[in-house]
Amino acid sequence: MAIGTFGTSIVFEVTDEKVMNFTDLNRTVTGNWAAHAVIGQKPKSEFLGAALQTLSFSIVLNAALGVRPRAVLDAIAEMVEAGTAEYFVVGSAPVGKNPWKITSVSETWDTILNKGELMKATLGLSLEEYI
Fold first, then answer.
1. Where are the alpha helices (DSSP H) in 22-130?
2. Tens digit of pLDDT for each residue in 45-79?
3. Are the C-beta atoms of 90 and 100 separated by less than 8 Å?
């Protein structure tokens, strides 16, 4: 069953053959504010507009759960380096109104087997709203 997607290349799902899910999803929504100094008074606040939203989450890629860790790592690295922006969907609803770009990804290669086969890896992704 599909849990969500990031574009068409990254599908988060739990099936009999494959488990690939994200954890610790964190969304930050902020506004841009300016403070104008006033002599002898507290500064006056002015709302300048909405700031770009951010998302962060982790993914565990485990070959024992039907995932090909190296292929997923390569696909995500390519998206980062190409500046790809995609919609992030959880269930049937997009998160936010706009696409997201991956601003950074950190990889931890947890388990490497004989001949360098990657068995398990943990990723930390940071995304920013793309307008």
1. 69-82
2. 999 999 999 999 999 999 999 999 999 999 999 99
3. no
Fold of the CATH domain 2-129: Elongation Factor Tu (Ef-tu); domain 3 (2.40.30)
- Exposed e or buried b per residue across 35-74, where buried means at least 16 C-beta atoms within 10 angstroms of its C-beta: eeeeeeeeeeeeeeeeebbbbbbbbbbbbeeebebbebbe
What confidence tens digit (pLDDT) does each residue in 111-127 have?
999 999 999 999 999 99
Q: How far apart are CA 20 and CA 13, in angstroms?
A: 5
Residue 82 near residue 88, CB atoms below 8 Å: no
∠ Cα 98 105 5 (to 5°): 45
Alpha-carbon gap, residue 122 to 57, rounded angstroms: 11
